[in-house]
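Sequence and structure are no longer studied apart. To make this concrete, we show below a single chain and its fold as tokens.
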Amino acid sequence: MSKQFDKIVSLCKRRGFVFPSSEIYGGLGATYDYGPLGAELKRSVSARWWRAMVFAHDNIVGLDASILMHPRVWKASGHVDAFHDPLIDDKVSKRRYKADQLIEGYIAKLRKRGKVAQADAVHARLVDALHADNPAKALHAIIMDEEIPSPDSGAFDWSDVRQFNLMFETHVGAVASNDTRIYLRPETAQGIFVNTFNVADTARLKVPFGIAQVGKAFRNEIVARQFIFRMREFEQMEMQYFVEPGTQREAYEEWREKRFQWHCSNGIRKANLRWHVHDKPAHYADAAVDIQYRFPIGWQEIEGIHSRTDYDLTRHQEYAGKKMQVFNPQTGDRYVPFVVETSAGLDRTILMLLCEAYREEVVDGTPRTVMGFEPSLAPITAAVFPLIRRGEMADRARRIADSMRGMFNVLYDDRGSIGKRYRRMDEVGTPLCFTVDRQTLEDGTITVRSRDTLQQERIDQEHALAYVTAVLTSP
């Protein structure tokens, strides 16, 4: 991992964004807990997504489906038979890698060295391998032919490529057997599909319409590294948009644009985002593209937009024996709707925002670390400081902080010098700091200081709430 990424991970623990799960017992691989600031950031992002999806559209509603579902759901969706990762082991380091990602990394290195023709040839073989009847064997052949070494040990001593199913199994009832086996859901989409017509009927929706959901999913990631980018327990923000067959391409392009702009509205620079078209769309899709972000660890997916055709509803119609069709009053025909999906990782979005916000500066010869979050997403919206910890200054500072509570997350802090308090707030991304000083006792004005510009101005203490509101709502 890069030095900058290591600094971000360190800051996350030090300032209470993200902690290793079960750390007092030595931790549990690829599981993390969100601390006080991380929980606030996560709630803000989730709420912002919900507003953009549900509140902003009159034909999209929400759902919160169960994590545990009937096991035939996953047979119908194809996860039981096809939800596998091709993995290969380095016999020297004992580390395990996804074979396709190993080859993609090798291709990137070839391009960086100017070996474009060789990179193109290997890429063409990779595409063919992903479409082969036996992808594991085809991927292994590429690794052997190109003599791709292990990224960690540098050795060329590989196992065969094997397919691993990523679903977690558990059992219902008192006795574990094949008849009681169920799965923790590996995605949230199927909860939407099995409830499509429950939702459409009760919400009185007609095609086109959408169903949105934010929820937990679980994947037994064998290769789980890179902090919260790839975890075994994670959250997805998904919306399934149901359309008439033949109109899916138009909806697909529309949602591509909307989703890209949403990430930009969160303060992500366009230069750090790009499109990645799938060489091999998933078995259910006729088109698929990812939005990727330039992390310190390289370009990685944060959201997928997929045209899923009628695969899911048709499969559930077959396996459940229930009609999954809508009636077209203009033609008198019935049809299974096609689906356009937007699927964003909430945890990956959080990591992207952390990476985008992080910066190091030198101000008047003194270094400072700043998390430059978009103000409305900042975990702490404003901080209030009294110059002196006791007496009228402290009392007035507490009243100002209390006047904003319930509207925003406000921090009252009276410990340390004002300079150190400012630096602490810079490091957690607080946009505004208000200071009560001697002049406040004379004329009722307070100092407000901007995280980004470092400019300070005096305003009437009664205007603090309005000032914060103006900053959060300014374009």
Q: What stands out?
A: The domain at 84-165 is CATH 3.30.40.230 (Herpes Virus-1). DSSP finds 16 helices and 23 strands in the chain.
